[in-house]
Amino acid sequence: MRRLFSRLAPTYAQKLTLLAAVPLVLAVAGIAIVVALQAKALADREINTLENQLIAAKKVELRNYVTQARNGFYFVYGSASPQDDAAKAQVTQILSAMIYGDEGQFFVYDFDGTALVSPRETDRINRNFSGETDSSGTPVVNELIRIARDGGGYHTYLWRKPSTGVEAQMITYVTSFPSWRWAVGTGVFIDDILSSVASARADVLARVQRTFLYIGAITLAALFLVFGTGMLVNLRERRLADAKLKKLTQRVFDAQEEERGRVARELHDGISQILVGVRYALENARRRLDRGDRRAADPLGKGIDSLGQAISEVRRISRDLRPGVLDDLGLGPALKTLVDEFSARTGIACQFNTVVFRNRLDNDAKIALYRIAQEALTNIERHAGASKVIVDLRGHRQGATLEISDNGRGIYGGIQSSGGLGLRNMQERMDQLGGTLSLVAAQGGGTRIKATVPLTHLLPPESSLTTPAPNS
Amino acid sequence: MTNPVKVMIVDDHPMVAEGIQSILESYDDIQVVGCLSNGRAAIDQFEALDPDVILMDLNMPDVGGLSATEIVLERRPDMRIVILSMHDNPEYISSALSHGAMGYILKDVPTDEIKLAIDQVMQGQRYLCTGAQGSLEPKDTAREALTEREQTILLELAQGRANKEVAAILDISVRTVETHRKNIKRKLGISSTAGLTRYAMEHGVLQGTGVRI
What we know:
The structure holds 2 protein chains of 2 kinds.
Chain A: H1 12-77, H2 85-97, E1 106-110, E2 115-117, H3 141-149, E3 153-160, E4 167-177, E5 182-189, H4 191-290, H5 297-321, H6 324-328, H7 331-346, E6 349-354, H8 363-384, E7 388-396, E8 399-406, H9 411-418, H10 421-433, E9 436-441, E10 447-454
Parallel strand pairs in A: 6-7
Antiparallel strand pairs in A: 1-2, 1-5, 3-4, 4-5, 7-8, 8-10, 9-10
Chain B: E1 5-10, H1 14-25, E2 30-36, H2 39-49, E3 53-57, H3 65-75, E4 80-85, H4 90-98, E5 103-106, H5 112-122, E6 127-128, H6 148-158, H7 163-170, H8 174-188, H9 193-202
Parallel strand pairs in B: 1-2, 1-3, 3-4, 4-5, 5-6
Helix pairs in contact in B: 2-3, 6-8, 6-9, 7-8
């Protein structure tokens, strides 16, 4: 079931790396956004303040110009009557001469909308512009006159620059010479302010983008670091696992070679020799028969005896490799045989208890439990110094449990620290089956090994039906 | 002269079967009526061949010698069956006897013994190969083990099936099922069917098996 884990599922190492990387990316992204918003807001505020200040300064300047001009003309205007054309001409002349800068000029419209002073656009003089609007539809002349009649003020609109003919935004301050019904004012183009503000804004935007880039680069570096470290760790883990696997494989190979060597030796030294003897005996018998010797039966009999020996030798080797009783009759009888042979060989009293069910375990579980019992009995024989062993096998609601207890020295006199390969094998066998192995000190000295396999290794009732079902 | 003894041989190894057949045919008072290669064939054909003695190999694929022995005996309780085996392990011998065989001989004993075994079971006596005799006294300490058939029937009963259903499933008579049931109860020391179910449950035989309880 664990093996069935989808191939797409990330490994443990990948999960760890993701776990580190995702929050990092999220946090950095959050910080970047907050920083960018804050920086932009701050810059906007500053730029707006600057814009307002610049424009305010321009306005003050404009008003000063106009006030200065009006005060300058007061000696003429203040003493002239509304119909004093000479005085009007004088003022008009002087105002026309008061040009400044590239674009600076004073203008005068009478309250009807006729341009009286326009030194940089002289073609406008004496023409009526009542109702004139700028290109975006803002009323210009009428509005200027209205503001002037109301006591003076500012007006903003689009106007062609006299020097270049390019339209730009202009601020104008206008006031009136009421008795002459004049609106007098001057204006400045504020496109330079606006463009410098715009470039400041662009600057800020660029800086924010740059900040984003820096943060991105730093994040990328951090991610590389995380993934790199993860990969290194992963590689190291895998190398360790590989080494472990290699060692294990070597152990399996060693065990296999040793076993093969033993079997080969037994076949060669035992059975081969016996069969060679049989062959000699048979040939001997044939020679005697050929010669009409009546004693042919002697070597024949000897050959038959030797064959019997060979058969029992094969039986012994086969049983040592894998007890047939385990496959034919099940774990219970196999353990019973093992225990009886153990008792007979070592003289240690050995008792075997089991329930009466047979062949209820699947093959893997049978073999594993059998080998564990074998290993345990070998350990007891070699190390425990026990005089009594109890082997118990039974099924229960959670599975099946094999228990081997002895009254010896306890944990085999500490063998698990030195030659614990056997115990490790037992553990591995149980791990393989999803079972458990426990090793405890038995009451009153000695050791108790308990190996449990889960219910999944117990066969369902149907599959044990070895009986034929003629009707189906 | 009396009629020859009719012998049926069941073994999945042709060399062995032929060897036994040729040896037995050298005796005048023995007639080999059939040479079958597995347990299922033995179950299907023994009634037609009608032997007096069946020589049955223990290890056979599909239906093994022990199961076949039990099923043959369900139909012909008086059939004399001798188990042939390569194993001298006492567990095999006691298993063979508990499944109802009358004899147990190793294949590598002198062939005279096969004849001897046939003669002896024909006289109604058990025959066990030389060397095996000592180990087969029924173990009085341990509980007597259930046979394959008894175990099958126990599992059916424990799942709540009635004698009649079990008889239908296994194609045997209700009376046979009742006999098995009695033997099971005696061997386990249990008196009720509920007890049998509980026993099977407590030993993990019914769980994890697709049987819902």
